[in-house]
């Protein structure tokens, strides 16, 4: 069994991760904000994966065993918050929209002491108070791909994760894993809280965000993620995120 690294205090720092690299399973006694200044960040726990594209962040609650994965060249800013400070009232990871003010506050907190213009503790305390205010009203994004717990769904979801372009129906996939489409539909709702089409769309969107972070052309992303055409992908992406994938580029 792999040992899970335990860091009592969640670090406040900036790290640069190369595409495809990551940070293995670990946990903190403090909460953590993991902000992707550029690239895309995937945070994975036993409950699934949360993907934060550039200029988004993942809220990681205290005690959560999690791993980081970089897509594209990732500029990762980490801000630790005491376990008794939870402005969001969330007990599971969540992707948050980061506005320009919150971004600057995160950057100010993650500068190294020698780079900071002012290391006065009172000033930093005031910055922290504003950060918490902005964090409390940050819009949440539906960028969570839940992980199955039942053996049948694990087998089916693994097939699609290995090949997001697999367009087989639930009935056809069911024949491969030995379950009827009716049984699988019930399992998706009970185990994952969504329908099979919803889960597959979430999978493809998460995969698309990772590819876009690597500067993959939109038409290629559509093909690699299983959409029938670039226009179908663009339409789904716009409905999910409010803008087109062509404007969704690493900063």
Kindly identify the CATH topology of the largest domain: Jelly Rolls
- Cα Rg: 19 Å
The CATH H-level superfamily of the largest domain is Jelly Rolls
Instruction: Summarize the amount of helix as a percent range.
Output: 25-40%
Provide the structure class. alpha+beta
Count the strands? 10
How many helical stretches? 8
Class of the largest domain in CATH? Mainly Beta
**Total tally of structural domains:** 2
**Average predicted local confidence, pLDDT:** 90
Question: Termini, distance in Å?
Answer: 38 Å
The backbone outline, from C-alpha atoms, is: globular
The CATH architecture of the largest domain would be Sandwich
Low-confidence stretches: none
Order of helices and strands: EEEEEEEEHHEEHHHHHH
Largest sheet: 10 strands, mixed
Query: Beta-sheet strand percentage?
Result: 25-35%
What does this structure look like?
- This protein has 251 residues and is an alpha+beta fold.
- It folds into two domains: 5-141, Jelly Rolls, CATH 2.60.120; 148-247, Homeodomain-like (Arc Repressor Mutant, subunit A).
- 38% of the residues lie in helices and 26% in strands.
- It is built from eight helices and ten strands.
- Strands 1, 2, 3, 4, 5, 6, 7, 8, 9 and 10 form a ten-stranded mixed sheet that branches.
- α1 runs antiparallel to α2 (121-136), α4 (170-177) crosses α5 and α7 packs across α8.
- The longest helix has 18 residues, at 196-213.
- The protein starts with a strand and ends in a 10-residue tail after the last helix.
- The model has no long low-confidence stretch (mean pLDDT 90).
């Amino acid at each position: 069994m792999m040992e899970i690294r335990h860091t009592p205090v969640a670090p406040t720092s900036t790290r640069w991760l190369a595409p495809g690299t990551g940070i293995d399973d670990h946990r903190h006694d403090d909460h953590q904000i993991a902000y992707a200044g550029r690239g895309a960040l995937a945070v994975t726990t036993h409950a699934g994966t949360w993907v934060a594209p550039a200029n988004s962040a993942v809220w990681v609650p205290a005690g959560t065993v999690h791993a980081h994965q970089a897509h594209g060249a990732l500029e990762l800013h980490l801000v630790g918050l005491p376990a008794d400070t939870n402005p969001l009232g969330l007990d599971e990871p969540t992707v948050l929209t980061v506005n320009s003010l919150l971004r600057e506050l995160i950057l100010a907190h993650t500068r190294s002491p020698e780079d900071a213009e002012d290391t006065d503790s009172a000033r930093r305390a005031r910055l922290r108070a504003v950060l918490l205010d902005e964090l409390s009203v940050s819009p949440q994004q539906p960028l969570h791909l839940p992980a199955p717990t039942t053996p049948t769904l694990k087998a089916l979801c693994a097939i699609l994760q290995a090949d997001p372009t697999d367009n087989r129906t639930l009935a056809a996939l069911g024949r491969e894993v030995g379950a009827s489409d009716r049984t699988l539909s019930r399992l998706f709702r009970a185990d994952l809280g969504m329908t099979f089409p919803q889960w597959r769309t979430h999978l493809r969107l998460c995969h698309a965000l990772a590819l876009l972070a690597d500067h993959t052309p939109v038409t290629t992303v559509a093909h690699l993620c299983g959409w029938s055409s670039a226009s179908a992908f663009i339409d789904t992406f716009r409905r999910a995120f409010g803008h087109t994938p062509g404007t969704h580029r690493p900063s």
